[in-house]
Write a structure and sequence with these properties.
The chain is α+β, with helices and mostly antiparallel strands. The chain has 4 helices and 8 strands; from the N terminus they run βαββββαββααβ. Strands 1, 2, 3, 4, 5, 6, 7 and 8 form an 8-stranded antiparallel beta sheet that branches. The longest helix is centred in the last third of the chain and has 14 residues. It is globular and about 55 Å long. The model has no long low-confidence stretch (mean pLDDT about 95). It holds the Pfam family Pyridox_ox_2.
Length: about 150
Amino acid sequence: MGSKKPIQDPRQIEAILANAKFIRLALSDPETSSPYLVPLSFGYKDNVIYLHGSSTGKKIDIIRKNPKVCFEADIETEVITADDPCKYNVRYRSVIGHGQAHFVEDYDQKVEGLTVLSEHYGEKGPFEFEEWKVNRLCVIRIEIEKMTGKESGF
């Protein structure tokens, strides 16, 4: 089994995001100094991650207080067993990134974010979103400031 090693090529890091099904979004509530982690569906394009969901809830409350976020995505994960449990290994490719979350208020920009999300899961546009649904949804745009990749077992 290979050892853990950094992924240096930005195209490989972007390929991990393009193929990941979910991200884990880490937030920090400044009032409680408490971390909060949530798995989410997402879309990625041009160094931006898009999220969508309800306009209320713990995630929204924390982002309003502290827009700094951390995220993680992984693909090709597999536990490699052995006769000796101390020799088990894990195979994966992963990305960890940091950025700033922004609430998207403009209707056309919301549609753009929802389009990126839909395309991430294999749908082909153009899409027609019902206006009342777009207006009701919360769309979050994470502008990525830095990303690193790592792999093991390859």
